[in-house]
């Protein structure tokens, strides 16, 4: 039995939780000093109007977003701290959106999440079979995209139930589900909560009466709980027939802070209070004559309450000096569990950092790579497109550039006085002219075609990978899939690495295809000479240098993460149009079209630091001059590529971390 069950009977505890979005004038307070207690093994129904902050609260509970005040404890610890499996396999999360891969089958979807949770193949198969029959789903080979809306929601529920988590969080699971199935889902929830598994369930719903089946309900408004208790207790306390009436009654009674409460809110003037100083406060209930007093222990950023009075809402905002408005309206929502010791604390900066620096896990990488490859397999037109574009590029390039000139119009400027030259030229016609010598090749090594072909190969694959991976990220984020993967314990670094690995495979194929066309279709000299060279070193070098070229694609992921943090396709379009600028950065400055030696000195220096400059030169030297890994230019290309990868990964990781809210 986990340790927290002995020390604390609550699976989830929120104390004075505050959370806002935005800053400055656009700051929006979403959670305003919310307190919540979810007993272990209970079904907790979270009710509230649209936009009152339910989803935000759930995100705080699963550790997907940081709180700005107060603390959250989930299954005994602060969510998101290192070593805690929340987010991870201890929590099953069904978001509001269906959040499924539409091109996957039901079986593939559940296998993907099972792998992320470290389940064996047998366990996945067994649970899949059970969930399919329990949720009356069609056979597992059916594509998600071909299921009805209700069936898709049931698959989403199955993915949350798959690993039999200790905490199940369901954000409106019964929306769009028929009444029969809704009843069945509730039966199952009651079953798993009461069985030996003792799963704790938090469920949000707009169907208030459905929540009467829960062990405990929390009625939420304006970012805080108006009341929290057993449904029957709430109804008897307020002498009302149903939960809906209780909710309406509480909403009428409640007025949001700063409305017109001056005479109701007693205020006190405090002397300057330093950390851990205690202050005795007298208070009076607004709706009765009863009075009492309470001792508050004040801290710099926190305050703790002794007695029945809860933490003053304005304490943290205004600091410990001056007037404090006591939140009378919420001061009597008794939270219970007085003796509970909650081993949680606000997420500290050092903990955040530890979480960010987490090493990628092979299990997650494997599951993500299989997912990426399955996505590719299911999207043949896109895959063909990925291979066709570089082919078209190399063919057009070889057809149009570097060939022997023909049909060139020639004119002669003749300045002799007697116009004898003009007379002579007048006698010339197409038959008079005859070629007197074969054109001489090989004067310049490498030729212009050779010069550009290497750069083209490096950059053609680069652009396509950027666009397609970005698109996949934006869509996954938009459909809530990224959120779901994060809650399953996947890190941003793992998602990024899985895309690097799968794109590398595709890019290797693209490069071989382009080389084949350049060699067989157009006899590009440099490719021929590289292939004819028999020394082992040359072959190794040629292949080896492909890797820096491939790895430079990592720059993709900086853009990918920046863009995927925005939720609309607008930014994808914006990104694609900014390719104009990227053209200069990737074709002109790295010396793909024209040698960098012809640039001013300062520009040359900048060029050396760009990700494609060294790999392009290295490929050119290996193919044209037979250089190998021993040559400085070749190994420098590796170093520069690796440095770019590290820089991008760190920058992308930091950006994602701070944009995750
Ligand atoms: N990422 C975000 N950035 C800015 N504001 C946000 C963000 N997420 C939510 N909000 C805002 O916070 C408030 C609460 O949103 P939340 O999704 O938590 O509400 P909810 O109670 O779950 O609503 P519903 O029942 O309609 O799903 C809303 O006003 C919403 O616009």
From TrEMBL:
SMART domains: AAA. Pfam families: ABC2_membrane, ABC_tran. It comes from the Eukaryota. InterPro entries: AAA+_ATPase, ABC2_TM, ABC_transporter-like_ATP-bd, ABC_transporter-like_CS, P-loop_NTPase. The keyword Transmembrane helix applies. It is a multi-pass membrane protein. Residues 12-247 form the ABC transporter domain. It is found in: Membrane. The chain crosses the membrane at residues 451-474, 511-532, 544-563, 569-594, 635-658. The keyword Transmembrane applies. Keywords: ATP-binding, Membrane, Nucleotide-binding, Transmembrane, Transmembrane helix. This is ABC transporter G family member 20-like.
């Amino acid at each position: 039995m986990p340790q927290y069950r002995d020390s604390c009977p609550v699976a989830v505890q929120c104390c004075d939780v505050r959370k806002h979005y935005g800053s400055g004038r656009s700051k929006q307070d979403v959670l305003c000093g919310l307190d919540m207690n979810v007993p272990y093994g209970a079904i907790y129904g979270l009710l509230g109007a649209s936009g009152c902050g339910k989803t935000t609260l759930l995100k705080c509970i699963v550790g997907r977003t940081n709180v700005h005040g107060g603390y959250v404890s989930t299954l005994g610890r602060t969510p998101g701290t290192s070593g805690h499996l929340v987010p991870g396999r201890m929590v099953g999360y069904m978001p509001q959106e269906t959040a499924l891969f539409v091109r996957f089958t039901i079986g593939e979807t559940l296998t993907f999440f099972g792998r992320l949770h470290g389940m064996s193949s047998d366990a996945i198969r067994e649970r899949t079979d059970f969930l399919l029959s329990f949720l009356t789903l069609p056979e597992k080979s059916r594509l998600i995209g071909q299921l009805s809306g209700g069936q898709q929601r049931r698959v989403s529920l199955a993915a949350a139930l798959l690993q039999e988590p200790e905490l199940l969080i369901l954000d409106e699971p019964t929306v769009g589900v028929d009444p029969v199935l809704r009843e069945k889902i509730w039966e199952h929830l009651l079953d798993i909560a009461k069985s030996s598994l003792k799963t704790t369930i938090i469920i949000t719903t707009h169907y208030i009466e459905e929540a009467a089946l829960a062990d405990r309900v929390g009625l939420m408004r304006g970012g805080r709980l108006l009341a929290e208790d057993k449904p029957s207790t709430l109804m008897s306390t307020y002498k009302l027939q149903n939960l809906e009436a209780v909710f309406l009654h509480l909403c009428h009674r409640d007025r949001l802070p700063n409305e017109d409460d001056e005479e109701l809110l007693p205020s006190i003037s405090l002397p300057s209070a330093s950390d851990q100083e205690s202050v005795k406060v007298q208070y009076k209930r607004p709706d009765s004559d009863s009075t009492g007093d309470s001792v508050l222990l004040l801290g710099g950023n926190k305050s703790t309450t002794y007695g029945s009075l809860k933490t003053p809402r304005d304490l943290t905002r205004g600091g410990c000096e001056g007037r404090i408005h006591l939140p009378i309206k919420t001061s009597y929502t008794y939270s219970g569990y007085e003796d509970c010791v909650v081993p949680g604390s606000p997420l500290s900066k050092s903990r955040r950092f530890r979480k960010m620096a987490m090493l990628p896990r092979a299990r997650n990488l494997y599951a993500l790579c299989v997912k990426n490859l399955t996505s590719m397999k299911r999207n043949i037109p896109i895959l063909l497109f990925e291979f066709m574009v570089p082919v078209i590029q190399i063919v057009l390039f070889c057809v149009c550039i570097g060939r022997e000139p023909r049909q060139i119009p020639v004119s002669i400027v003749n300045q002799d006085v007697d116009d004898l030259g003009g007379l002579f030229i007048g006698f010339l016609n197409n038959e008079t002219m005859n070629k007197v010598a074969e054109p001489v090749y090989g004067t310049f090594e490498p030729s212009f075609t050779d010069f550009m072909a290497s750069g083209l190969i490096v950059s053609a694959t680069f652009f396509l990978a950027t666009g397609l991976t970005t698109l996949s990220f934006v869509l996954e984020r938009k459909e809530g899939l990224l959120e779901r993967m994060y809650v399953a314990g996947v890190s941003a670094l793992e998602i990024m690495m899985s895309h690097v690995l799968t794109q590398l495979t595709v890019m290797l194929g693209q490069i071989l295809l382009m080389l084949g066309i350049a060699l067989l279709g157009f006899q590009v000299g440099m490719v021929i000479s590289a292939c004819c060279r028999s020394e082992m070193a040359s072959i190794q070098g040629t292949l080896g240098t492909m890797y820096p070229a491939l790895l430079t694609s990592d720059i993709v992921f900086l853009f990918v993460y920046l863009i995927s943090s925005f939720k609309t396709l607008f930014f994808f379009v914006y990104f694609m149009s900014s390719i104009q600028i990227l053209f200069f950065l990737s074709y002109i400055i790295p010396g793909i079209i024209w040698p960098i030696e012809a640039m001013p000195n300062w520009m040359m220096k900048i060029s050396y630091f760009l990700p494609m400059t060294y790999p392009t030169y290295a490929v050119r030297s290996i193919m044209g001059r037979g250089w190998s890994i021993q040559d400085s230019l070749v190994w420098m290309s590796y170093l520069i590529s690796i440095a770019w990868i590290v820089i991008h990964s760190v920058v992308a990781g930091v950006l994602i971390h701070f944009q995750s809210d």
